[in-house]
Amino acid sequence: MAKFNLTDLLSESSKKEVEKEGFRIKDIDIEDIAPDERNFYDTSDIEELKASIEMFGLQQNLVVQRTEEGKYTLISGHRRLKAITELVSEGHIELRKVPCKVEDQTEDKWTELQLIVANSTTRELSDYEKMKQATRLKELLAGLKKDGVKLPGRMREMIADALDVSPTQVARMDSIDKNLSDDFKEEFQAEKVNASTAYELSGLPEEKQKEAYEEYKDKGSISIKDVKQIKEDSKLEEPKEEKQKKIYVCSSEGKRFKMASYVEEVVKEGHIPLNAQSILYGVKGIEAEEAYRALCIELISLADEVWVYGSIMGKDVAMMSMVELNIASNLRKKTVYRKGEKHGC
Q1: Are residues 100 and 36 in the same domain?
Q2: 299: domain range?
């Protein structure tokens, strides 16, 4: 898989702008530096880093951005800042001021992009951290696009390329980030729920995730099989909505006002009524008979079922209904006989 390259994103003008601005190194008191709330990387297990800084000093600058209040927000170096803060609290006052690269907002986006891509290859990341990387990359790329930077490809493919994963994995991470409940996200972050199970859980409605979480707390674990079973059970619980049908309405009486009442009943039951007689009412002559038969064939062909109102036995059965029933029979349409007594037939 080709590796993501930030230079592909930079137009010539933006390249020159960044080169022209350069950067400043400044010693800043750690009390004036606040960790970025968006940082999602693990900052535990820093004892070796503390020992290294204590012996050799800080070997790599922190990267910060100045805030409106005159303080600084940390962009890169959260583990280093935590190690130095602990060392200062243990009495190493000489480490209180640290060298920082101070960037403006334009540089900030590019730097964070570079750091995320670098971390994806140089650090062993948890599935939770990979998910947060993908989410943050999406936000940064969207921000650059809004700033007028032309992106060389589809967003999801660019993120996949940057993190050396497949676009499908990016989509799964996006689903987890957007849809997984906060309770399960905590378990996912703590690596008590794996990525595959988290993805399956993210496909459950909120209420079902709550139920799954209660079950998880009781059992102490949850598997993909458990989640899939919850999904299957949910399908059985859901009431099945009756599909809206196209109903050809056939009346044995051939009376227009009766036909109107039958059509109304079909509509009340949530279906779409079809009837040639209603459409051609008022048309007379041989041409009308031919048109009627042709329209019957067309409409009954479209219909899911033919509903017959009134009795089809006896000499009073309308000729038109017999035509319709013959066509329905020839087209092998399901015929449903409704009770005529309901309408005074």
Answers
A1: yes
A2: 246-343
Q: What is the pLDDT of residue 226?
A: 92
> 215 with 121, same domain?
no
Res. 282: pLDDT tops 70: no
* CA atoms 5, 8, 9, 10: torsion sign: positive
Distance of CA 115 to the CA centre of its chain: 27
Number of separate domains in the chain: 3
pLDDT tens for 1-19 read 444 444 455 434 344 444 5
Name every residue whose Cβ is closer than 8 Å to that of residue 276 and which is 6 or more positions away in sequence.
292, 295, 296, 299, 324
In a domain, 63, yes or no: yes
d(CA 288, CA 280): 8
How distant is the alpha carbon of residue 179 from its chain centre? 7
In this prediction, residues 263-274 reach a mean pLDDT of 91
Structure token pair of residue 66? 């100045």
Decide if 220 is inside a domain.
yes
Q: Pick the more confident residue, 134 or 36.
A: 134
Which residues, in sequence order, are CB contacts of 303 under 8 Å at separation 6+?
A: 246, 247, 248, 274, 333
- pTM beyond 0.85: the answer is no
User: Could you tell me the two tokens for 196?
Assistant: 């595959």
Residues 6+ apart with CB under 8 A from 343: 258, 261, 262, 309, 310
pLDDT value at 87 more than 50: yes
pLDDT over 70 at 223, yes or no: yes
Q: Considering the domain boundaries, does residue 239 fall inside one?
A: no
Pairing verdict, β 272-274 and 334-337? unpaired
Q: Give the end of a domain, one of 128, 149, 170.
A: 149
First-residue to last-residue Cα distance in the chain = 75
Q: Residues 207, 253: one domain? A: no
Question: Same domain for 132 and 31?
Answer: yes
Residue 174 lies in a domain: no
Domain boundary among 149, 171, 197: 149
Percentage of the chain beyond pLDDT 90 is 35
Average pLDDT of the chain, as a whole number: 81
Average pLDDT over residues 268-297: 81
